[in-house]
Design a protein that fits this description.
This protein is of the alpha+beta class. It is built from four helices and five strands, in the order H-E-H-H-E-E-E-H-E. The chain has a single domain (26-117), classed as 3-Layer(aba) Sandwich (Glutaredoxin). A hairpin with a 6-residue loop joins strand 3 and strand 4 (89-91). The chain is globular and about 50 Å long. This is NADP-reducing hydrogenase subunit HndB.
Length: 126
């Protein structure tokens, strides 16, 4: 990350963030926690399974991201999915089978899938 040294740097960073956010409009965002604990619990396997399922079903408009700790240690691996126009939903205990189910049921059909972690806070996303 670059250092912001002036007001112009700050304005440029703001524009970069706004451009990144605008590019995501209309896309499904799948954010997989890949902190050490999640990787140990199978997070990489879950992400690869979801990417495979998206490709297998020919889905477009799906963007994968990876994040560090989501603070749900008891529920690793965790996946946050944001469907266009919807609030993010976090799923826990996502193994390979559940990862595939998340794509076919939640991403493709919008149907709830077991493993939703209730959210009790408001999140600010840049």
């Amino acid at each position: 990350m670059s250092t912001i040294r002036s007001f112009e740097d700050l304005k440029a960073k703001r524009q970069e963030i706004l451009d990144r956010k605008a590019a995501r409009n209309g896309k499904t965002i799948i954010n997989v926690s890949l902190a050490t604990c999640s990787i140990a619990a199978g997070g990489k396997v879950a992400m690869e399974a979801m990417q495979d399922e998206v490709a297998k079903n020919g889905l477009t408009g799906v963007e994968f991201m990876q994040s560090s700790c989501m603070t749900y240690c008891y529920a690793e691996p965790t996946v946050e999915i944001t469907l266009p126009g919807k609030d993010p939903v976090v799923f826990g205990g996502v193994d390979e089978n559940r990862a595939r189910e998340l794509v076919t049921e939640y991403v493709m059909k919008g149907e709830p899938v077991e493993g939703i972690i209730p959210v009790n806070y408001e999140r600010v996303v840049l």
